């Protein structure tokens, strides 16, 4: 019977203590706004501007008001439709583009990749007006298409998937080509199953990015029936500028899907970072 190894005691050096203290401070600074938002959502109007963190008399009236007096469910439905559609279409097109740029040989491949990669250096405000002009010319203003189509193309997803595909062993493709498989069959039957960790992480990234989108929906829509949740909260705040208890309740409801997604998919995010080779 093997003897149990004694546990190694952690040696607390001044550097480790300082890093631990810094980590605790950063964690509290990150969590405090979220805690303040959630507790404020349960406060009555007379307490929401007070200094106390916890409400003395918690109430659900704020949530009832949000769901009965404002079409908030419609806003959340719009955000879900846009986020889900962009996520599915982006993963489909990005994975195909990344596979072609990583595994296929054709003239101008590196140039095309550099051009796509260079768009990561351009921020949204720079291309906001040109994109709006194009979308208006195509007749997609005040429509789901106008909210979805421009958000599909994202150089980050293509770049991350390409880096992942480059790291895959080439023997898999060679064996499949010898067996008579086409490139489309290789992509569908070999590449996509191996891409599940990185695709899971990109799913979370794309969904959360579009769920929290504000500038582009504000630019492209004026129809109240097409308002997404973030735009709905902004207009709600302007309409009831003094009723912060209602605004905090709406923000809490809007934050719940993002927190649940991160809670259930955090393992996939960590695994995708490991498989992508980030150091």
TrEMBL record:
Q: How does it sit in the membrane?
A: Multi-pass membrane protein
Where does the record say this protein resides?
Cell membrane
Top-rank lineage group of the source organism: Bacteria
The ABC transmembrane type-1 domain sits at 76-265
The UniProt record lists the keyword Nucleotide-binding: no
UniProt-listed SUPFAM superfamilies: MetI-like
- Keyword annotations of the record: Cell membrane, Membrane, Sugar transport, Transmembrane, Transmembrane helix, Transport
List where the protein spans the membrane.
Answer: 17-38, 80-101, 113-138, 144-165, 186-208, 246-265
Question: Mind telling me which Gene3D superfamilies this protein's record contains?
Answer: MetI-like (1.10.3720.10)
Classification via InterPro entries: MetI-like, MetI-like_sf
* Pfam families named among the record's database cross-references: BPD_transp_1 (PF00528)
Q: Which family does it belong to?
A: Belongs to the binding-protein-dependent transport system permease family.
**What is the recorded name of this protein?**
Multiple sugar transport system permease protein
Source species of the chain: Brachybacterium sacelli
């Amino acid at each position: 019977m093997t003897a149990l190894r004694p546990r190694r005691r952690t040696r607390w050096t001044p550097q480790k203590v300082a890093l631990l203290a810094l980590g605790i401070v950063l964690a509290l600074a990150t969590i405090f706004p979220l805690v303040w938002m959630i507790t404020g959502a349960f406060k009555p109007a007379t307490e929401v501007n007070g200094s106390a963190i916890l409400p003395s008399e918690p109430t659900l009236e704020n949530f009832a008001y949000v769901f009965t007096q404002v079409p908030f469910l419609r806003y959340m439905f719009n955000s879900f439709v846009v986020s889900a559609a962009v996520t599915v279409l982006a993963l489909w097109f990005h994975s195909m583009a990344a596979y072609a740029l990583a595994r296929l040989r054709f003239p101008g491949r590196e140039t095309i990749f550099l051009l796509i990669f260079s768009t990561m250096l351009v921020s949204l405000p720079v291309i906001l007006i040109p994109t709006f002009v194009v979308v208006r010319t195509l007749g997609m203003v005040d429509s789901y298409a106008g909210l979805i189509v421009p958000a599909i193309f994202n150089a980050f997803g293509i770049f991350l998937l390409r880096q992942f595909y480059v790291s895959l062993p080439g023997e898999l493709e060679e064996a499949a080509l010898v067996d008579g498989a086409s490139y489309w069959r290789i992509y569908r039957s070999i590449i996509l199953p191996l891409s599940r960790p990185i695709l899971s992480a990109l799913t979370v990234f794309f969904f959360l990015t579009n769920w929290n989108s504000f500038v582009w929906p504000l630019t492209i829509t004026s129809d109240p029936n097409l308002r997404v949740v973030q735009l709905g909260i902004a207009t709600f705040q302007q309409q009831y500028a003094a009723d912060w208890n209602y605004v905090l309740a709406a923000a809490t409801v809007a934050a719940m899907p993002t927190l649940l997604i991160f809670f259930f998919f955090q393992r996939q995010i960590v695994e995708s970072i490991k498989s992508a080779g980030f150091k």
